[in-house]
Amino acid sequence: MIAAVIPEFGRMKVREVDDPQLSGSTDVIVKVAAAGVCRTDLETMSGGLVPAYGQPIFPYVAGHETTGWVEAVGSEVSVVAPGDPVLLHPLITCGLCDGCRAGRDMYCSNSRFPGVDATTWGGFAEYMLTGERAVVPLPGDADLVELAGFSDAGLTAYHAVKRLVPYLNPNGTVAVIGVGGVGHFAVQLLREMTSCTVIALDVDSARAQLGEQLGAHASFHGPIETLLESVLELTNGGVDAVMDCASGGSQSVTPLDFVRKGGTVSLVGGGASLNVDTLSAVVKEITIVTNLVGTYTELQELIGMQRSGLRSLHTTFPLSDTTEALHALTTGSVAGRAVLVP
């Protein structure tokens, strides 16, 4: 098969590799229809995830937002059959540990994270090996390109908003930093799931304006220092919560500076180190909430929200143009998600 392979840190090359093979009774091989491109993939390629997942076994195939059609199944698979359209949860979980039995898939102590965990190949390929617990069956007429971004970007935003809701007042104000692949979902979901005023913030004017098009009540663009000034002026002292979807911050400004006393900072996805002035955080009694992906059930719920108008903005690239897709993501020239199509 053809795949976008990381042969060493700093490079990704499209070339032929061996097809995946069934090895376990609950394995599922998927013919890839679409694979979203995430900043995590850039971190995988650069070596930024080594502290979390270790040194990759090269060659390595990234990609963790995948849709497609079932190609083959193991002997005990009963949920899907060859030809079925599916969306893949980012994690392959065991179903037996405490995390799985509690329904919290991202806490699985035996999970594999295709395209991220340095050993399990991901979806930047014509075919991908996954497990039965990761496949979400879809209707026959599902738009598999549209749904690719739901797998991780949408799921992460949905999980984060659900975790944030208990900290919000009905008349509160929430700022979203970064209206990109995850942030454009976050803006929509905050409008759908809360009655709060939503402010979209981005370094890029077009993406900030996109936030308003997706439902934000206001938007600002510019460097993080300018964004902070605008928010503090608009809100007379800070928002009730901020969702950082872009690892926003600088040496002088952090997401914690955007919230008022008793506010909440939701960190959506990993990124640069966050410098916390603990004395200031304690005096203001700021709550920091971190988020990792979401559950299988939440992914099912999110798919249902597409029927009520939830949008997954995307630009498609052939798998052969993976380098161009990565460049578009790096430069911020794509709205929503870049999606690879084999």
Automatic annotation (TrEMBL):
Catalytic EC class: oxidoreductase
Domain Enoyl reductase (ER): 10-340
UniProt key word Oxidoreductase: yes
Keywords: Metal-binding, Oxidoreductase, Plasmid, Zinc
Reactions catalysed according to its record: a secondary alcohol + NAD(+) = a ketone + NADH + H(+); a primary alcohol + NAD(+) = an aldehyde + NADH + H(+)
PANTHER family listed in its UniProt record: ALCOHOL DEHYDROGENASE 1-RELATED (PTHR42940), VACUOLAR PROTEIN SORTING-ASSOCIATED PROTEIN 11 (PTHR42940:SF8)
Protein name: alcohol dehydrogenase
Classification lineage: Bacteria, Bacillati, Actinomycetota, Actinomycetes, Mycobacteriales
Gene: adh2
